[in-house]
Structures are given as structure tokens and as C-alpha cells.
Amino acid sequence: MSESNETEGGVGNPQNVLVDTDPRSESVPVGHDDALSLPYTTLPDFNAVVGDLPKMDLATSEATKEWLIAISEATQCLIRGNVYTEAARREDSKWSQFIMDEAGKISAGKPKISPSQPGGSITGESALFKLSSILGTGGIVQVPLWHTGIWVSLKAPSESALLELDRRMAREKVDLGRDTYGMIFSNSSVYIKQFLINFVLGHVYNSTLKDFDTESLRTLISVNDYPTLLWGILCTIYPKGYPLAQPCIANIGTCNHVSKAHVSISKLLWTDASRISDTQSKHMFNRFRKVTVQDLEAYQASLKTTYVNIKITDELYLDIRVPTLDEYIKSGMQWVNDISNMIESSFKESLKGAERNTYMTNQGKVTALRQYAHWILRIKLGEDGGEGVIDDRGTIDNMCSQLSAVPEIMDAIIEQVGIAIENSALSIVAIPNYECPSCHGEQVTGEGDALHRRLIPLEVEQIFFALTKQRLIRTLQHAEL
User: Which end of the chain is flanked by fewer CB atoms within 10 Å, N or C?
Assistant: First the structure.
């Protein structure tokens, strides 16, 4: 176990990180040729050093080609908008792979599946889960949703379920301006988010929520727990971890080393112990006790950053809150439907194919603030809402569309939503930084920034896509033999 509490490079806040188990292991043998390439820097830091790429001879070195492939794949796992970087470096934070309650450690784990008596029979799904666990091909994982206040037990999806998810998402082409404005928890890729949320919730085997079903989970789970849910389903698919490729970026132009290792996906979830009170840890300690909606309301009300009031101008104030998965999806779908209705009403002949997608993308950009409408609980006009309070969802949506035409206000609101996301983060999926074994260089070298960070936040959605795609390709290739 190691702990870091340092002001990095003399810049920024100390980052207090307690590493109970290093997710990265050199000793675990690689079982196949595929590997997950993960970034060991943030997007701004990578952009700061990528200018050195022309120094490299791209044509003559196989090692350089391997490095370029690893870099290309790793950058896909960088979070857009640099989200969670400030959360990971939050003043007085204490990020850990577990929360220590007076009764013991709290972290994700595998529920025990065994017969009622030694040598007894196991039937049905329990028998299948036990076999998958023994073979290392999948299993059940109990995941703590710290932002919501419940535990969910996730079961590993079948190959056919992953194939159907891939087919459905391949048909979804509309991406409303993500490259321009979108970041995590925005509505820019709402169809994909909806598919993934429904997919994960469809694999919830059990929950501490009393009388739960898929719909009740969707309406109660905080959107901040979306990355944790995706991480949890990856833990069920890869209980023994996955081969890892780590491209060095410390000395671009002189070092093109790619470290080969193994990553334990189950060790990539970190929770800020400084934000968890004794009351909240006691609430979460019993992973089998059933809780009611009223219990969750009390738990979430005790969180410090669930709700915040912000000033945009002297005449415009917003109440920002953390939305649920259901609010997230409904807001995004309403945005897409409004754009579709605009197309139908504006053109005598319906647009189709690429022309329709281009128009929808452009409409998404000019109404970009709608990406974050679900974070806005109410709009107050005048100080303390003296000129009026707007809390109707349809009116809030329309006002977000209108405010998108005022760049300074739109940018200010998006900035404040970004701050709210950072401040409300209790758990993040991240990987500890490392020193290149070849050049011994530190992996974060952005000018004016920290010389190294202990945790690099990861884009779990892209990791999910990369690993499931590799898995399906291997499965289909094997079936053809």
C-alpha cells in the first residue's frame, strides 16, 4: 500500500492517493495478442507535447509504428473536456480504492455463490455464474454506487447480448456536436448513452434498493454513477483483468517504448474518502440491507454537492443539481426529437441520410446548451428570482436553446456545469501514473502544469467499446475455425 500527498511540481493542489493494490502488474502473463492502450496523461498535457511528433521517423522503425498505434488507441480513452482532472486534484481530497468504515473496508467485490450445504446442488443462473467464475470468463460483481446510495450486483453479459448491442449502436450515426462542445454527461450522444444504460441495467442481478426493477433504478440512480456502472459491467466480463499497453510520452522523439503489462480492471475505481461522512459510510457498509426511496433521499440530501446555486449575470441565476439517469436520457431524447420536428416542419421534402445527419449536427451546435439542460433545476430571473422563477422543463429547454445564441452566457453556463460535475464527483475511474522503465521519464509534462499526477481519469465508455469490440472479433474468428 502506498500513499502520495505532494504538491506536484510546485503547481496546483496536493493529490492524496492511497493505492491499496496497484492495478498494473508486470508478472501476469499476456493471454492473447490484443491489448488495452491506456493514456498516462490528460488531454491538455497530451496536446502540449504532441507537437514533438514530427521529430520521429515514422517509416523505418517497427517500434515507432507500435508506439503510434498504442498512442492512437490510448488517446481515445482520454476524457473530453478534461473532466475529473480537477476532481482528482481537489484540495484535501483522499482518493482510495476502498472506504474504511469502523466496521471494515467498503469496496466492490464478488458475492459468494455456494450451495446451502457442502456438496449440495447449485442450479439455474447460480450454477452458470459459478462456472463462469471458475473459468474466469465472467461472473457477478457487487458495485457501490456512492452518488446514489445503493449497491447493485451485475452479471456478466453473454456473447449474443454483446453482439446485439454492437449491432444496435452501429446503426446510430447521429452525434450532435460532441466534437465541438460535448463532454461527459452531455446529451450529445444520447442514443448511445441510452443503449448502454439500458444494457447495464438489464444485467442487474440484485440491488439493495427495495422492490427494485429496471425502471426504478433508472429513475433513482445518479448520472454521476454512469461511469461506475460501465466499469462494473467490464469487471464482470474481465474478472481476471486484461493485457495492457502503455506508450511513453515523456520524451517524444527519443523514447518510443511501449510497456507491456496486465491491468486489473476491478482496481480502477477510486472514491474520495474526504467526501464520505461516517453516516454515509455506515449507510453503504451493509451491502445486503434493503433501503427505501426515503432512505436514498436522506442519503443524497446529506451529500455536500448535490445542489448548487450559481450567478451567471446580475439578472440570471441558475439552480444546478445532479440529474438521474432517467432525467439525463429524457432530456437528450427531447432535444433530438425537437430537432427532428424542426426538420419535418421546415422542409417540404424530408431530409434523408447524410444530409439529414449533417443538418441535425448543425442544429445541435446552434442549440448546444441543450446538452446540459438536465443539470438545470430552475432558472431565476433577477436577484433571488425576484423577476420570476422558471422550473418547467419545456420552458427551461426553450430558454437553453435561446441562450445558446449568446456565446458568453452559454460558455459561462457550460463552465459552471463542468465545475458542478467536478465538485459532485465522489468516485472516478482512473489509473495511477507511472515512470517509463526505459527512459525513466514522468508521463505528464504539460507546460505550466503539474510534473506528474497520481491519477489519470479514464473515458470508461471508450474502454468498453474497445474491449467488447476486440472480444467479439476474437469470438467470431474462433467460430469460423
Answer: C
